[in-house]
Structure formats: C-alpha cells, structure tokens
Amino acid sequence: MKRTIPLIVGFIIGVVMIGEFFIPHYRYRAMTAEFLEWGLILGAGAFILGLVNLVQVNLPKVQRRETDWQYKAAMLVALVITLIVGFAAGESRQADGQTFKWIYDYAFTPLNATMFALLAFYIASAAFRAFRARNMEATVLLAAAILVMIARVPIGESIPVIGDYLPQFMNWIMDVPNTAARRAIFIGAALGAIATGLRVILGMERSHLGGGES
Predict the structure, then answer these.
(1) Is the pLDDT of residue 192 over 90?
(2) Claim: this prediction has a pTM higher than 0.70
(3) How many whole angstroms separate alpha carbon 196 and alpha carbon 4?
(4) CA 109 from centroid of its chain's CA atoms
C-alpha cells in the first residue's frame, strides 16, 4: 500500500493535469490551478527534506574527519549562519542593510559567479577535444566555430575582402543551421519528457518511490 496509493494519486493527478490542455472550461482550470498550488507546497516541503538530508549526509563525514571534511564543515557552518540570520530578520531579510541580504550579495553571489567562471575552463577543454578534425562532421563543426569566433571579435571585420561578409555569414550560421539543430534537440528532450511523464503516470517508472516492486 505504501507504493500503491502514491501510484494511484500520481495517475489521477497526471490525467487531470493533461486534461488542462484539452478542456478549456474555467472550473476545470481553477481545479488544476489548485493542484499546482499544492505542488508548490510539496516543493517547499522537498526543500526541507533536502536540508535534512544534506545534514545527515555531511555531518557524519565531518565527525569522522573523512576526505575533504573541512569543506563540508564550512558548508554546514554557512548553512547554520544563513538560516539563523534569515529567520531572525523575518520578512525584511531581503531589505537593504539586512545581514541576510549582505551575505547573499557579497558572499553567495561572488562564489556563484566564481563557480560558473571556472566552468569556462572545462568548456574550453571539451571544445578542444570536440573540435579535432577527425572526420567530416568534426571538420564542419570546427570551421563553423572558427568563423563564428572570428566574426564576433573586432579583428574579424578588419580582415581584407571577407571582413565585411563575416558578420552576415555568422548570422546565417546562428539563425539557420544552429537554430535547426537546437529545435531538433528541444523536440527530442520534449519527447523524452513526455515518455517519462507517461511512465510515471502509468506506474511503470517507480524510482521516485524508492525502487523495488510494489
């Protein structure tokens, strides 16, 4: 029953939410809007569960002094400080002059920007491996990337003869083949999402219930 009831509830809610795209009646839309509100409440509860799980996973590692326990300890200390400061400030925590806002603006935001800046090096490394002209497809990808990069910098327009045409060719690459490829990827992702949703609604996908057969 612990798995049967969630499967039944998931099936009913899933069918009702799919019906929103085909039943335009305002009462039906009001009902689905209510379900969405419940979903937001459950999502907030998931944040709390994630917080508890974060402490349960990392606190024992800090106590046992496992590998990189200092970083986990720093994370837990930052977590506790942020929670205390946020709860103490209440609804005004995001107002100017509040400690919570200062932590967000001058600690979290710079750290977040640093993390994404470091990702640029991994992207450059992956691009270097992907752009090796090992076959015809990789050669076309390499040529297109070089043209786009040259056209996006001022020195590209100063190249004799072809400098004036590079921006136009770059725009064509971005608007035609690049857009077509992105749409194909989006269509594939949408089909995958539909397939996953149907598997959850029909009870074929049960990983969210903890695995195992009911």
Answers:
(1) yes
(2) no
(3) 19
(4) 17
